[in-house]
TrEMBL record:
Superkingdom: Bacteria
Chain ranges of the Cyclic nucleotide-binding domain: 5-82
InterPro entries with a match to the protein in the record: cNMP-bd_dom, cNMP-bd_dom_sf, RmlC-like_jellyroll
One Pfam family recorded for the sequence: cNMP_binding
Range of residues in the leader sequence: none
Record protein name field: Crp/Fnr family transcriptional regulator
Length: 87
């Protein structure tokens, strides 16, 4: 994906987990006044998981964005649940 690509928007419920193969990403949140704060940076070989949103199925307070060109694998949580149920 190109740099500055948003692959998860603030306020969306997380439905997948990501593995960063190449590049740099960050989790960012915006205040009501539009001020941007970086919460966390992700580097190659990092897992990117909106854990609380994923587990509780609640809107994520964070936006996920690539800062450089990136290669990312995504795994839908439903695929993981199905695999776990059938193993």
């Amino acid at each position: 994906m190109p740099s500055r690509h948003i692959f998860h928007h603030q306020g969306e419920v997380a439905k997948e987990i990501f593995f960063l193969l190449e590049g740099i990403c960050h989790a960012v949140y915006f205040t009501d006044k539009g001020k941007e704060f970086s919460k966390q940076f992700y580097w190659e070989n990092d897992w990117i998981i909106g854990f609380e949103s994923l587990v509780n199925q609640t809107p994520s307070p964070y936006q996920l964005e690539s800062l450089t060109p990136c290669s990312i694998m995504s795994l839908p949580i439903e695929t993981l649940r199905t695999w776990r149920k059938n193993k």
